[in-house]
Amino acid sequence: MSTITNEPVLDSLAPSTPGLWSFGHVTVERVDSGPISLDRRGGRLHVRHSLTPADLSERLVAGVTSSIQDAEFGQDEFELTMVGLVRSTVDGALESWTTYYRNSLAELLDGTADFAPIHDKAEELVRGSVLDLGSCFGFLPLRLARAGMDVTATDILPGTMILLDAVAPELGITIDTVICDAGEVPAPDNSADTVTAIHLLEHVDDSVGEAVIAQALRIARQRVVIAVPFEDEATACHGHIRTFDLESLRAVGRQTGVPFEVFEHHGGWLVLDASAA
User: Fold this and answer.
1) Axis crossing angle, helix 93-110 with helix 116-125, rounded to the nearest 10
2) Domain count, the chain
3) Residue of 127, 183, 131 lying closest to 152 (CA atoms)
4) Which structural domain range is residue 57 located in?
5) Where is the Methyltransferase type domain (predicted)?
6) What's the gap between Cα 46 and its chain centre?
């Protein structure tokens, strides 16, 4: 049974006033100088910043996280703030996102991005065609497609896949996208050589995680590659709801009943032998 609500749907490509972006109760404004600042009044959040186009990349995630001194700052506000920072820094929707994507990919490829070692390891581990679960902005699928691989990105949020579809041609990259729940993927059995789930499982509970892995093993011909962060506490503003260590990853591997490998590299990795499933 579906429920109809009056909640607005975020369109990251919608027109906005240059230097100013608003959605719901969040407003992001570019000012002449100063660090990222947050002002919460009367149920509204006003974010001010003086970023330049060169500042737009995934590095902002760490910068925004360190700026948060608000216990009520949840995942929705974090994501809206990130969108607003991009959209208020460069005029034009597609232009702003293309800048963000181009800068982020460059930093991931030259190793200066915090997430670069994780993408390096993921690219090393994949084999053949790839279906990526929970792609979010889709940086890993874009990187793999740029390297000549046949890649499909998936995410439950339509907006992220619509954005990826719009930006990929601007970057000269061909990629397929699918809007779906990672636990219910509309892909045939054994339809991709590798299925990846990179920093996805920390966003879902145990039962959903089991469904995601079952889907991955159903779809993958060769292997499933899973990566998770190691955290003392789940980072709520990033949407994390559980934590992992090497032993909990081994437990996940044992539950699948297939041969697996677990190791640590900027977090934890679980590689499942899908050919034995």
Assistant:
1) 70
2) 2
3) 131
4) 20-103
5) 131-222
6) 24
Q: What is the pLDDT of residue 182?
A: 97
Q: Which residue has the tokens 């027109």?
A: 15
Short-list 177, 113, 99, 179, CA closest to 145: 177
Does residue 8 surpass a pLDDT of 80? no
Give the pLDDT score at 71.
58
Contact of 108 with 119, CB cutoff 8 Å:
yes
Residues in the chain: 277
Contacts of 269 (CB under 8 A, 6+ apart): 121, 125, 225, 226, 227, 249, 261, 262, 263
**Residue 115 main-chain phi, psi, to 5 deg:** -85, -5
Using an 8 Å Cβ cutoff, are 105 and 123 in contact? no
Query: Which tokens is 186 given?
Result: 């509309």
* pTM of the predicted model as reported, rounded to 2 decimal places: 0.91
Q: For residues 94 and 131, state if they share a domain.
A: no
Asked if 159 contacts 11 with a C-beta cutoff of 8 angstroms, the reply is yes
Distance (Å, whole) CA 164 – CA 168:
6
